[in-house]
Amino acid sequence: MALPVVLDVDTGVDDACAILLAALHPALDLRAVTCVGGNADVDAVVANTLTVLDAAGRPDLVVARGAERPLLEEAVDARHVHGLDGMADLDWPKSPRQPVVAHAVEVLRDVLLEAAAYADEEHRVTLVPLAPLTNIALLLRTYPQVAQGIREIVFMGGAAQAGNATASAEFNVFHDPEAAAVVLDACVDLDIAVTMYGLDVFYAPRISRGTAELLVSAGGHGASELAGRLIAFQCERFGSDSATIGDAGAVCAVIEPGAVRRERLPVRVELAGTWSRGRTIVDLRDWGGDLSHDPHGQARSTIDVCLEVDAQRFATLWLDTVSGGMR
Ligand code: BDR
Ligand code: CA
User: Fold this and answer.
1) pLDDT category of residue 119 using cuts at 50, 70 and 90
2) Which fold has domain 3-322?
3) How many other C-beta atoms lie within 10 A of the C-beta of residue 219?
């Protein structure tokens, strides 16, 4: 049986890369794509998401609109990274479709409760948030019973070492730090396994500009052309000969967990800090003496942190899938 997954996205150039992979890879059964404000406002995110699914030939998939803004922070987009429309300003045909009427949190609830109704593990859903965690925080606090339907949460966000939105914080966590803290806290209470796919691995799987041009040459406004144009946009924007598949790496980690070196580590989200708000504080210390004398005590949440990936394997997995080789 294909692995049931749901993506929560802020599409977003690299979210688009992730959606293409999840929609087309035969090992995954993509149940829904829920949207949240982040890289762009939530309406642009919904429009971009529908466009990607049309290009992938998956107009059957449910798309739902979620939170417009973070729990506490004001919304600040990342159009300087992702383009004015949030998805590379490609002048791509817009989808004629609309999202479902239900809110993203209700769609997540329904998909997860349906999975929970089965007694077996196989039907449980892997939840893959690739965006600020606002929808997921609202979901877990409002409908904690969905935990029964969740196999694990694999989220893109945070970092053990570096930041991008600020020198110390990664964009998704920085955008809504309270939501990230709520999700980690709720996952302890609800016994949900969590994997953090953060900036330590995010940039590693890369596609060259030349390969992007080959993908674009497939034409026809399909998955291959879109994938190539998304990579080409990033090469252009960052003045580089290659670009990361970004959020799509988190989906690769779900498909090929063996290609990831991960460690179980205590993680906190910095909610104060002058320069460090939104940082994930990953405790890499291994000497018990330091740990037991820490005046803060142990972090409540211990999760799997991805520290290294087989970047070539992930890049090949993505490329084979979006160019039609896996179907
Ligand atoms: C994350 O922020 C967004 O810009 C990307 O889509 C990714 O989810 C990287 O920090
Ligand atoms: Ca994203």
Assistant:
1) confident
2) Inosine-uridine Nucleoside N-ribohydrolase; Chain A (3.90.245)
3) 9
